[in-house]
Every structure is written in C-alpha cells, then in structure tokens.
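Sharing a chain and its predicted structure for anyone who wants a worked example. Both blocks are below, sequence first, tokens second.
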Amino acid sequence: MRQPLCGIEDPFNQQTLMYRVLGYWRKRSLTWRIYNYTPDMPKSETKRAIRSAFKYWSDVAPLSFREVEYGRADIRISFHSADGPDTIGLESAMMVPLYTGYLNNFCLHPNDVKYIQATVGKKSKHGTSVPVEPTVTLPTDSLPDAEGDIPDPCTAKLDPIMLGPWRKTFAFSGDYVWMVSDMGHNAPMKIDRLWMGLPGNLSAAVYSQRTNKTYFFKGDKVWRYTSFLLDYGYPKELKGLPPNIDATLYLEKNKKLVFFKVVEHNTWDELRSSNLNVHPKPLSNLFTGVPTSPDVAFTWTNGKIYFLKRDKYWRVNRLLSVDKGYPLNTRGKQTP
C-alpha cells in the first residue's frame, strides 16, 4: 500500500526513475475475503466501509469486487494491532495505510487514478475498458536547486538504489529517498528522517540480508546502520576500497557484498573479516556481460540483478549472466 505515481516492474533509468507499466491486469473481477475483524467496529460497518472503499476504484476503472467467505480470495483482509513501518513517508494517496480521520467529499487522489487506469484501463460510459498507453518521458531538468524542493520520482536523477530493510527497494536522489515496489512508490522524504545523520548525494548503498546491516558510501567515508540506527563509531574513513565507488549490492548467491569500481569488483564476507581491504578482481570474473563502471547496481524483489549505465540497463539472472535480449534502451519500450 504505497502511493503510486508511475507503473513499475522492470524498471529504471540511471538519470530518471522510469516506472514502466509492462502490461495490464488480466483479471478485472476480483474477490475479497475478511479473515478476522477489528474489535473497534461492528462487522456490518466494517464490510460497509470496505465495499465503499472498493467502489472508489470501480468508479474510475473497469473493476468489480465480490466478497467470498470461504477459499482463497484475490484480496485478503485482516486486522492487527501495531502494524508496522509502511506508514513512513506516506502522505495523501488512498493507498496510504494511515488513518487520518474522516474526510468530507473524499475522492481518490489523482495519482491513484492515474495508476489504476494505467494498469487496467479507463472505465468507459458503457462499462468497458479503454486501454491507456503508458508513456516514458525524458528528464528536462536536473534535481531542483532550491532548498526544500522535493524531487519527482518519475524525473529525478538517481543516486543509489538498494533492496533494503523490510525487503523494500529504496531509491535515493540528492537529499531524498522513497520506497519502491511493483505497485508504485511512496512520497519522497528526507534521507535523515529514516537514517539520522546520513548525508545526501550518496555514491552507493547496500543492505546485507545476512547481518541486517545497511552500508552507505560517500567520498572516502562509510556509514553503517543497524535497522535505522547509526552504529557506534560511524561514519568511518573508507579503508581498503577506492573512494567514490560506482555501485554495490548484496549477492544472495554467496551471501557477500560486492563493490564495483570501473572494471574491477571487490567481494567482502562480513562474517569472516571486519576488514574491507579485499583484493580487487576483474568484473568479468564474477558477472558475464555486464557493463564496466556501472552507474547503479541493485537487486530487485524478484531476485534479478540490474545494472544501469547511461541510457541502457542490463538484467542479470541467478547464474550471474545477462538475460537474453539485454541491454535495453531506457527510451524504448520493453516487453515482460
């Protein structure tokens, strides 16, 4: 449940965050089921509120929603106390899971309408769908210079991208960060609201699923966080790695961190050594077919690794080889 602005799945441009819609939902008749109820509302009121919420979507898109009481449903609803971190940074779209009180004459946020219509089409007067052709726009400006200006995730120049805590993908641009999923993204927020003390304009970022540590790199310094708290003694001077590394990622295959600089890479096993001074090796020794000096490298939630350089991107499979048909030009269309 994140505020969507642009479609996304197979994703990005090194200068602009291109969220592409790679197809439409094939299923327009959706079922829903409540697995448990909130103690704060009668069951009938809960169902009425859910039906009302679905109607906002069916009014603008060719969707129908039907309740089922048994079996598997497309939409599964349950209520829990203290549900977690997804409220961070989310503001005005209906997909925000933070209750802000009753709003008179509520209507969907325009961004929500754009997303759902780009995904399933517009609803015509006769109830049929009108396909919406997704577009990719090229950037006309760099990041805004004025203090306080918030970058548009669809046109912002990217710094690192990483698969981070909560298995969320974080995209960084200047002093801002936002979470991305295949459903869209939330509103940009200042980086130091999530990671206190962390500067903007980062050169690289990586989260280790092995140790739950997040590393950020800028110039000749490294910051390390556990969850979102800065570890004692950090930031530190970066030793054993060249300054301003190109990119870094966590490699699930060997549970190691990989750092990229020009034509070389360094592989670091956190549990075997606390020293980052590892001998660099040719990039081609680890990956087949990827570019040298990548602008961005990251793992997507589907396990695929992506490399971005200028106006092209490469998708890497679990064998660490570039998938057939890549690289693709970010200005062209892509098929899933």
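Comments welcome. Residues 1-24, 83-101, 129-148, 332-336 have pLDDT under 50 and may be disordered.
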